[in-house]
Write a structure and sequence with these properties.
globular; two-stranded antiparallel sheet; Glycosyltransferase; alpha+beta; 4-stranded antiparallel beta sheet; 17 helices
Length: 564
């Protein structure tokens, strides 16, 4: 993560405000309505069916209650280490590392006017001293938020959702340019004035980030987290408030705005997501497309059809979802069979009947891919645009694609097959490679601009990030591949605490603590805890997983593990 230092100057225009006059704070004192009744799942209903039933007056609450009811709201009893007690059939002795991880996570909590608001990026696990920076990053907080929800502590998450919604309403300017109304901050910090006894918030919408790139993913993570909160607690009142409904609409309007696009995918600048430095992910990166797809589906479940302005946006969401799923499953998917098709592509086809619709030149296929692609397995490539296909593997986008059911069940199984077949490359000695392979030499110079932080097999250029283990575990549970998750967690447990919870690891196998990795990294701690709690109680998966929509029939019919 890149950030302005703790002592950096306060950003202009959208930086600091006293929030006493903002009426969202009244919601902080409202206790959630806990729904402990487990409903029958309606997973076989399509998005179109849900939308039409909502138009008939059933409302958002109706299909929120019936859809994806794998997770039982309200949580359970807590174990001695602070995690929810597991059922008898799933119970096991908790690893001693879990208790230490919870202690470290709680030390990272930051309060705003006496209420816990989020977790800062890094805190010394023994002294509680703030390390390096003291911002609360929106994307970084997600695993911490899930840990608190799984542990039956939703108020922290509720506070976070409301305060970030407050920040969305600020005027956002970078130099003389005004950002869109729907933009969510990359991060914020709590500024304390001991003389006045007043806390204020300072937000960064990209004006302090390296490269001055606005975070395209913050709004998506906010919607996904709002849905997770609603699913976990059974409290629909927060999502149904006019303020939250407006916040969702603003994010959706910004993403669905009409322009010169010929594809349903979302056009983005380099460095606009977890990979927040120049790494050649400009265009249509898989991470953004998967998060976009998941946030569209979550928004459709959260929006109230009867609220003013929602009917039109819901219709646009349904239309976009069908177009996006078709596009991603058709043009981003790669397995052995499709690689052979691309290898034999003809070029310069000028017709609506063209097979090579993006005019991908077969000679652009990198040599490493022919050996990397197994007979069993497949994945969504990193980027597809005219005459360009980025064949790199990106972990976050592929895992989110599984959770959002952007990947069909066959494709999800193929992604897990690939991880199993290429364990040394994608997992190594520390899960999980953020991307594979690393770029080096002249390519590294051209793509990164000679970035000294993104050297080969380091940071975002093939580095190993422990935080991603929660996404891997969730994908494993959804696809029924628990052995992969357990094996990866065992690797992480052997080193994380001993290495002081580093941000990332370097090397082709992830053997070395990253050369610039921050220690005591909060989301490394939270990612581990979420992975452990999901393995202990797989029903937690319902918070962050969406079942396949039957109306979006896959275009590709290749099997998950195509073999010769």
């Amino acid at each position: 993560m890149e950030a302005a230092g703790a002592g950096a100057a306060t950003p202009s225009h959208a930086s600091m405000v006293d929030t006493d006059d903002f009426d969202l704070s009244r919601l902080l004192n409202h206790r959630p309505r806990i729904n402990v009744e487990r409903q029958r799942s309606f997973d076989d209903r399509s998005l179109g069916d849900l939308y039409l039933s909502a138009m008939d007056g059933r409302g958002a609450g109706g299909y929120m209650d019936s859809y994806e009811s794998m997770y039982s709201p309200g949580g359970g009893l807590r174990s001695l280490t602070g995690t929810p007690a597991s059922s008898t059939r799933l119970s096991f002795e908790p690893h001693p590392l879990v208790g230490d991880a919870w202690d470290a996570l709680r030390r990272s909590l930051v309060c705003f006017r006496g209420q816990p608001l989020g977790t800062i990026a890094a805190v010394d696990s023994s002294s509680g001293e703030v390390l390096n920076y003291d911002q609360v990053f929106v994307r970084d907080f997600v695993p911490s938020a899930l840990a608190f929800l799984m542990n039956g502590e939703p108020e922290i998450v509720k506070n976070f959702l409301l305060k970030t919604l407050l920040l969305q309403g600020w005027e956002k300017r970078i130099d003389r340019f005004k950002l869109g109304e729907g933009a969510m901050p990359a991060s914020f910090k709590v500024l304390k004035d001991p003389k006045r006894g007043v806390d204020t918030l300072a937000a960064d919408f990209g004006e302090s980030a390296i490269g001055r790139v606005a975070p395209a993913d913050s709004g998506f993570w906010w919607i996904i987290l709002l849905r997770a909160y609603t699913k976990s607690t059974g409290d629909h009142t927060l999502a149904e408030t006019p303020e939250c409904q407006k916040g969702i609409r603003l994010i959706m309007n910004q993403c669905l705005a009409e322009g010169f696009d010929t594809f349903p995918t979302l056009l983005c600048a380099d460095g606009c997501c977890m990979i927040d430095r120049r790494m050649g992910v400009y265009g249509y990166p898989i991470e953004i497309q998967a998060l976009f797809f998941m946030s569209l589906r979550c928004a459709l479940l959260l929006l109230k059809p009867e609220a003013e302005g929602n009917k039109d946006i819901m219709e646009r969401i349904v239309t976009r979802l069908h177009a996006l799923s078709y596009h991603m499953r058709t043009y981003f998917w790669l397995d052995f069979q499709q690689l052979n098709v691309i290898y034999r592509f003809k070029t310069e086809e000028y017709s609506h009947t063209a097979v090579n619709k993006f005019n991908v030149i077969p000679e652009s296929i990198p040599d490493w891919l022919f050996d990397f692609m197994p007979s069993r397995g497949g994945y969504f490539v990193g980027n597809v645009s005219p005459a360009r296909m980025d064949f790199r593997w990106f972990a976050l986008g592929n895992c989110v694609a599984i959770l959002a059911s952007l990947a069909t069940p066959e494709q999800a199984g193929a992604i897990m097959d690939l991880i199993e077949e290429r364990w040394e490359d994608l997992i190594g000695e520390m899960p999980l490679k953020i991307c594979y392979p690393a770029i080096e030499g002249h390519e590294w110079q051209n793509v990164t601009g000679c970035d000294p932080k993104n050297t080969r097999w380091s940071y975002h250029n093939g580095g190993s990030w422990p935080v991603l283990i929660w996404l891997l575990t969730a994908a494993c549970i959804k696809t029924g591949r628990l052995k992969i998750a357990r094996r990866a967690i065992d690797l992480a447990e052997a080193r994380l605490a001993r290495d002081s919870w580093p941000e990332y690891y370097d090397g082709k196998l992830g053997r070395y603590v990253g050369k610039q990795a921050r220690k005591h990294q909060t989301w490394s701690i939270a990612g581990y805890l979420v992975a452990k709690m999901m393995l202990e109680d797989p029903s937690h998966l319902g918070m962050i997983s969406l079942e396949e929509d039957k109306a979006m029939n896959p275009v590709l019919k290749r099997s998950a593990s195509w073999t010769v």
